[in-house]
Amino acid sequence: MRALVAATLAEAGYKVVQAEDGVQALEIAKKEPVRLVVADVNMPRMDGLTLLKHLRGLAAYKFTPILILTTEISAEKKAVAKSAGATGWLVKPFDPQTLLSTIKRVIK
Amino acid sequence: MSDPNQLLNQLREVFFQEAEEGLEVAEAGLIELSNGTFDLEALNSVFRAIHSIKGGSGTFGLTRLIEFAHTAEAILDALRSQDNPPATEVVDGLLLSVDHLRAMLAAERDGSDLDSARTQDLQAQLQVLLSLVQGGAPSSATAAPVTAAPAAPAATFATEWSIEFLPHTDLMAFGNDPILLLRELGSLGPCRVEAILDRLPSFEQLEPDSIHLGWRINLSAAVEEAQIRDVFAWVESETDLNIKRVEPAAGRPATEPAPITAPTAPKAIPSAARAMAAAQPQQHREASSIRVSTDKVDALINLVGELVITQSMLSQIEKEVQIPQLDRLRDGLAQLKRNTRELQDSVMQIRMLPIKFVFSRFPRIVRDLTTKLGKKVDLQILGEDTELDKTLLEGVADPLVHIVRNALDHGLETPEERLAAGKPETGSLRIEAYHQGGDVHIKVSDNGRGLNLAGIFKKAVQVGLVKAEDRLSDAEIVDLLFAPGFSTAAQVSDISGRGVGLDVARRNIQNLGGTVEVDSKPGKGTTFSIRLPLTMAILDGQLVQVGSQIYIIPLVAILESLLMGSAHIRNIAGQQEVYRLRDEPVPVIRLYDIFGVPAERKTLPNSLLVVVESGGKKAGILVDDLLDQQQVVIKSLESNYGSVGGVSGATILGDGTVALILDVPGVVSLANRQARRANDEWGTRAARSQAGTASGAGRSKA
């Protein structure tokens, strides 16, 4: 999944940095500015929603678009994602085209 | 800067300036489009210009402008989807609307009244043009400039949606951006967007992180409500969304492609600023620049001027003192002198603008006039990038327009006349500018009929400028063109020739320190050559001594300086002394006489004469001594003291003394007046004494 997202984005000309889990993602995000975060809800060590909360706590990520990948989205899950500070979500599975058009919704 | 009103006013001022420039771009683009080829780039540039003006008008709440600009924009947009050049009447209509936008902007700027009847009239005309253009368009599919995907074909636009999008203040805290959502909405179909400013707090309370704006969107697209909701899916918890289906209005054509615009509020709000940027995605600035008020630049120039004076003062001291460390001081001073020069050059550069600012209006003028006069003209513009001082640029604009109008009205013939004279039916008008020897030269040449010298002379006799029996050289006859109250047009047209023409043009140019010359060949054409100094703030001058006074004669006016030999001194009819310079009589001007100051040398033989040129004529100025040549900073005498005849300004020399800068044409005319008075005096005296001793009598006064 991660490889597919990374390859699709790289193909479209974006510079992609990958992290294996939430902890590593947070480390990377602190070191270099990232313009868009795409995070799976389920990740080892730190899940996507926890990562989100940490990121929103950083001044540099206050307004950064953060998308979460999830297998299902219900009203309840939406509320949880929103309270964590998610910009939007993508329901798995999705094709590369959907990923790209979705990203256009949050970055120029 | 802390006063929000002041900031807003400044932003407003910037908008007006940019709008003004935008209209010029639009005008230039329209002219390009009118030559019958389809130029999408030109069309786009016009569209962008009008579009930005509309956007800016929205920001400052200039609703009448928005509406008017919108119609013009809709026409342009419809034109973009066609492959053929726009019809002449469409371009004409758009040019008129550019003119009217300019008038509207000016009215808003000064707070004066708008001519609303004219607005309505033009608006109606534009509507007609719009339906005309749209009727001719095969389809108006890709309408909106920020539409990502092509919208549905025109026929299915029947469904209209009215959407009220009121984001909560914290919308951006989740990484969403309203402009992107609006853009996404635009991918469904053409949108007409209007900003809701009701919730906008006062400037002090404005939170840059929060959204205070809302939008009312009119979407024309055959889509389901769910598709619209889907666009806002991520923000539904932070947004009040109101979606309604609109029944097609009877009056407005449902196919009208209206591009997305986001008229938004002050730029301090990031999203609004981005909205503006997004609304004009293709706009590139050719060169990066900042806008600075001319006052600041002038203050800087003034300061550098003072620095130049200080530097020359130090150089002066260097010549007088003797100290052991003099060598090192001298090195430092030399360095200072170089740096000052460079600094001065760079600062002067700031005031320099390309002459394009003036030239850009000519295509329009030529187009309008030739249409009106039924003439055919091929206009060539060269050297648009030639730079000159802003003040000069502004000063030379009107005279140039006048000369160009004259060339079109009087110089160039009608197609029939041209064919009859064996010339190609299309005449040519060439406007060029270039730098030469520290001056800017501007030439306006036509290949028309040339000056009719006999006609000019006859006319001059009619209006009483000369007598029929006067014998004038060709150059003198040409010079009559510039005499006050002269107009050769057989009938006075509204184009040129109200009788206040060329004399005013020439006087304006002379006031700028420039000259105008005319060269004409019968049947071949006429060339007006304007020569201007690069700047009005500094001039190269020759310092001359008369008694205890030091005067500065601008170097550009000086032809040569010489020691007078007694054999060449003549006295014409007793009243005017002349020096025969290589067989050419040069009238001698005694500066001390004009200014009423004591002088050392009052006899001509073995005295110094500075030969100057003014209005194509030579004159000699008698001086006691020639001093340094140096660059001097011009200080206005008018603003510090008052206008003085024969003096164009003053400067402060290295030793702190004030020296007057001579206005050479002014000095020459003062001298002429004095000579004329002397002549009259001599005439009456001669008449009284009946005869004989005439030459002796006049000698005392000259």
Outline the fold blueprint.
The complex is a heterodimer of chains A (108) and B (702).
Chain A: H1 2-11, H2 22-31, E1 37-40, H3 48-57, E2 66-70, H4 75-84, E3 88-91, H5 96-103
Parallel strand pairs in A: 1-2, 2-3
Helix pairs in contact in A: 2-3
Chain B: H1 4-33, H2 40-59, H3 63-80, H4 88-110, H5 116-136, E1 160-167, H6 178-186, E2 191-196, E3 214-220, H7 225-231, E4 239-246, H8 270-279, H9 294-320, H10 326-350, E5 352-354, H11 356-359, H12 362-373, E6 377-382, E7 387-389, H13 390-411, H14 415-420, E8 427-436, E9 439-446, H15 453-462, H16 474-480, H17 502-511, E10 515-521, E11 525-533, E12 538-546, E13 549-554, E14 558-563, E15 569-572, E16 576-581, E17 584-590, H18 591-595, E18 608-614, E19 617-623, E20 625-633, H19 637-640, E21 647-652, E22 658-662, H20 664-688, H21 694-698
Parallel strand pairs in B: 6-8, 13-22, 17-19
Antiparallel strand pairs in B: 1-3, 1-4, 2-3, 5-7, 8-9, 9-11, 10-11, 12-13, 12-20, 14-18, 15-16, 16-17, 18-19, 21-22
Overview of this protein structure:
The complex is a heterodimer of chains A (108) and B (702). With 108 residues, chain A is of the alpha/beta class. Chain A has a single domain (2-103), classed as Rossmann fold, CATH 3.40.50. Chain A has five helices and three strands. Chain A has helices at 2-11, 22-31, 48-57, 75-84, 96-103, and strands spanning 37-40, 66-70, 88-91. A three-stranded parallel sheet of chain A has the order 1-2-3, with helices on both faces. In chain A, strand 2 (66-70), helix 4 (75-84) and strand 3 (88-91) form a beta-alpha-beta unit. In chain A, helix 2 (22-31) packs parallel to helix 3 (48-57). The model of chain A has no long low-confidence stretch (mean pLDDT 84). With 702 residues, chain B is α+β, with helices and mostly antiparallel strands. Residues 137-158, 249-287, 489-500 and 691-702 of chain B have low confidence and may be disordered. In chain B, strands 14-18-19-17-16-15 form a six-stranded mixed sheet. Chain B has a five-stranded mixed sheet with strand order 6-8-9-11-10, with helices on one face. Chain B has a five-stranded mixed sheet with strand order 20-12-13-22-21. The chains are: A alpha/beta (108), B alpha+beta (702). Chains A and B meet through helix 4 of A and helix 6 of B.
